[in-house]
Amino acid sequence: MNNHFSLKRVWLLICRQWSEYKKFYVYGTLALLGLLIFAALVWISNSGLNYRKDYLISVYSFGLLLIGAIFANNSLKMLHSKAESIYWSTIPANQAEKLICILFYNVIVFTIVYTLCCILVSYCSFSYIDHIVRLNPKYSSSSLELDWKNRSSELRKIVTSLSYAFFVVQGLFILGAVYFKKYSFIITTIIAVLLLFAGLFYMQKLSDYFSPNSSFEINTLDIYKSTYQEIYKIDNPFANTIVFILKIIGGPFLWLISWYKLKEKEI
Fold first, then answer.
1. pLDDT digits over 8-30, tens only?
2. Kind and range of the H or E element at 89?
3. pTM score
4. Is 1 part of any domain?
5. 20: left (phi over 0), alpha (psi -120 to 50) or beta
6. CA 250 to CA 248: how far, in whole Å?
7. Domain that holds residue 58
8. Own/partner pairs, 22-30, CB within 8 angstroms, 24+ separation
9. Would 2 be classed as within a structural domain?
């Protein structure tokens, strides 16, 4: 196998992936659309007299991470079957090219399709709600603020945090699919939950180490005294650099580990 990286082979892999799994992607999109419609119907039927449109942002965020994790885990299901694994290994492309093909569908295609489905369902839901509010004054709906230009806006903060979390979740479940042949989704989910609780436990213990009445964040330590409050803070440019690096390396670091593990299966 030629280990020289080739964009042409990557494109051929992407085309081959679509040719072999297009039915899966089409049916998956329809199933996704059905789930989002169901979530919107549940929201509309249980909102009472006030429809909070920002609820759909929570649905979008939760669904992007959960469904994205399921999709990422299933993207390497061929490794769990001996016959399919042999076929995967004999494809004339190196593992980096195969991984890029997987990331193309998981990170780019999935996000675009999922977002378009959410926009479609949201548009139909909001149109129905606005119609109900116009017909019956006892109903009301809260507006959905989409001020993207304002850096301190709630939407921008949610989308930014969600983007970092999405890359990490994708990387973690792809890595889980590579490492675990059976029950990979369940095992990876358990590991993710344990890591989350371990991080929260560490933060709490670190706060308790300085003072029982303190709170600790990545760049700030607040210690509450009986009559005053002490605040220790890392210089903003330095702290922002550290936080940015920690956020952006999570996903690529997990992809890199997956690539090394996949190289063991290369012929």
1. 888 988 998 888 888 888 998 99
2. helix 82-89
3. 0.77
4. no
5. alpha
6. 6
7. 7-263
8. 25/105, 25/109, 28/71, 29/113, 29/117
9. no
